[in-house]
Write a structure and sequence with these properties.
single chain; 89 residues; alpha+beta; Histidine-containing Protein, Chain: A; 3 helices
């Protein structure tokens, strides 16, 4: 199990388009992927839950991944966040 944090650095935060891109990544993996603030974790494969997080720029999110492909899932999620969801600044 991986339990780490990740920072939201894109200008608009985890808005609809960014959440959609995150869903594209998380649903590729069989591992359980949860994301949230502190102890309140939600399913990172559920678009409505992601939108309800209200994670704006500067938010530090907790990321918990558990399963056979957890390392690869973490790598792809970190890449997506680091690339600011491939949005123009």
């Amino acid at each position: 199990m991986i339990d780490t944090t990740i920072d939201v650095i894109n200008k608009l935060g985890l808005h609809a388009r960014a959440s959609g891109k995150l869903i594209e990544v998380t649903t590729k993996f069989s591992s359980s992927i949860q994301i949230g603030k502190g102890e309140k974790l939600i399913d990172a494969k559920n678009i409505m839950s992601l939108l309800m997080l209200g994670a704006g720029k500067g938010t530090t999110l907790r990321l918990v991944i558990d399963g056979a492909d957890e390392e690869k899932a973490l790598e792809e999620i970190q890449t997506l966040f680091a690339a600011k969801f491939y949005e123009a600044e």
